[in-house]
Amino acid sequence: MYYPVEFSIGEYTLHQINKFLGYSLPDQEAANVAFHIINAQSAEKNNDADGMNFAQLIGKIVNIVQHTVGGGMVNDDIHYSRFITHVKFFVERFFTDNLLVGDDETLFLHLQVKYSQAMEGAYRVEDYLLKTYNKVISKEELTYLAVHIHRLISAKKFSGKD
Predict the structure, then answer these.
(1) Which string of DSSP letters, residue by residue, matches 95-130?
(2) Long-range residue pairs from 64-70, CB within 8 A, at least 24 positions apart, any chain
(3) DSSP-derived 3-state class of residue 29
(4) To which H or E segment does residue 90 belong?
(5) Among candidates 138, 118, 116, 115, which has minimal Cα distance to 126?
(6) How many C-beta neighbours within 10 Å does residue 143 have?
(7) What per-residue confidence (pLDDT) applies to 38?
(8) What backbone torsions phi and psi does residue 94 show, to the nearest 5 degrees?
(9) Rg, Å, the chain Cα set
(10) How crowded is residue 91: how many other Cβ atoms within 10 Å of its Cβ?
(11) Could you tell me the pLDDT band of residue 111, with boundaries at 50, 70 and 90?
(12) pLDDT at residue 36 is higher than 50
């Protein structure tokens, strides 16, 4: 779900292996091929930076945010796609210790006041990461996450799915 291109390549590879070698490998092997591709795409190698950990953390963040926005996120919505893309890059930065750091808190402070529900979602993600990985994320990362959460909330209200 979070790596559709890589999974499609895995399915194609599995089909080719089965066809060429005459084997009938299980369909789950397509996911293993996808995880190898995801691992290879990682800019830096880290023991925690593997496709399975990436996908699990992405899924957990999506679940936290879905709870915050009240469910009903539409997978083919542009805001959802942008959110997933942001979370993928965030997770890669998280596992490779390359989180964004900035000094300007203007947008962060504005979001706290104006978009409290989006910030609540970002804080829930921050709390999960602290409890699970004992890692603190920067206010800049919280800000970008909250912006994407706010877009999901706004899209949901605009579409009448609230």
Answers:
(1) HTT-----S--HHHHHHHHH-HHHHHHHHHHHHHHH
(2) 64/121, 64/124, 64/125, 64/128, 65/121, 65/124, 65/125, 65/149, 65/152, 67/124, 68/117, 68/118, 68/120, 68/121, 68/124, 68/149, 69/117, 69/121, 69/149, 69/152, 69/153, 69/156, 70/156, 70/162
(3) helix
(4) helix 78-95
(5) 138
(6) 23
(7) 74
(8) -60, -50
(9) 18
(10) 20
(11) very high
(12) yes
| The CATH number of the domain covering residues in 47-159 | 1.10.1790.10
- Write down the domain spans for the chain: 1-41, 47-159
Q: How far apart are CA 64 and CA 83, in angstroms?
A: 13
Six-digit token string for 89: 């890059």
Structure tokens at 58: 């992405």
Q: How far is it, in rounded angstroms, from Cα 143 to Cα 112?
A: 9
